[in-house]
Amino acid sequence: MLSDLSVREFLDELAGASAAPGGGSAAGLAGGQGAALVSMVCELTIGRKKYADVAAEMQAVLTQARSLQQLLLELMDRDARSYDAVMAAYSLPKGSPEQKAARSAAIQQGLKGATEVPVQTLAACVQVLELAKVAVAKGNINVVSDGGAGVLAAYAGLMTAAINVRINLNAIVDEVFVQEQEAKMRALVSAGQAARDQAWQIVRDKLGLAL
Q1: Mind listing the pLDDT tens digit for each residue in 64-111?
Q2: Cα–Cα nearest to 65, from 140, 3, 154, 142
Q3: What pTM was computed for the model?
Q4: Backbone φ and ψ of 207, nearest 5°
Q5: In angstroms, rounded to a whole number, what is the distance separating the alpha carbons of residues 185 and 198?
Q6: Are 70 and 1 in contact (CB under 8 A)?
Q7: Is it the case that residue 3 has pLDDT exceeding 90?
Q8: Which of 15, 28, 41, 42 could covalently link to 75 via disulfide, CB atoms 3.0 to 4.6 Å apart?
Q9: Which CATH number, 1.20.120.680, 3.20.20.70, 3.90.79.10, 3.40.50.1820, labels domain 19-207?
Q10: 168: Cβ contacts below 8 Å, ≥ 6 apart
C-alpha cells in the first residue's frame, strides 16, 4: 500500500514512469497532510489553560481531523488501484468487434471508478478546510502558521482532486454520469474555496501577513 511507504519511497513511486500513483494519490496525501496539521493545532491547544474555554470544541475538531486523515490516506491508495483498473482495461484485446466492444465497456467502467475516487477526495478536503477554519480561529496562536500550512495543503488536495475528476470526465461518454459528477465537483470546489478563503483570511490577520 502506498500509505505504508516511507516519504522517500512514495516520492520515488510518484516520480516513476507508471501512470499510477499519480495526481490523484498526491491529492489524497496533500489532503491528509492538511488534516494532520489541523490535528496538530488542536493537540497544542487542548490542555492549555489559556484555551480552556474552547477545549471541548477543539477536541471535536481533533477527532474529525484524525478520521479524515485516515480516510484521505485510504483514498490515496484507492486512487492508484482505480487507475490500475483503467490501464488493465486498455490492455484488453481488440482483435474482433466483440473484443473491441468489451474493451471499450471496461475502459468506460474503469474511468467511472477513477472519477468517483477523486470526488470523494474532494469531499474530504472540503471537510478538512471547514475544520481548519475553527482550528486557526480558536486554536493556539503560536501554531497558527502550522494551521495555515494545513489550509494550503488541504486546498492543494482539493484542486488536485478536481483536475483529476475533470480529465476523467473528458473521456467518459455517459453524459448523465458526466453531468452528475461535474455538478458534484463544482459544488465541492465552490464550498472548498469559500472555506479556504475564510480560513486563510484568519491566518493572514493573526500573522499580519500581506499575502
Answers
A1: 999 999 999 999 999 988 988 998 999 999 999 999 999 999 999 999
A2: 154
A3: 0.93
A4: -95, -10
A5: 20
A6: no
A7: no
A8: 28
A9: 1.20.120.680
A10: 111, 114, 115, 118
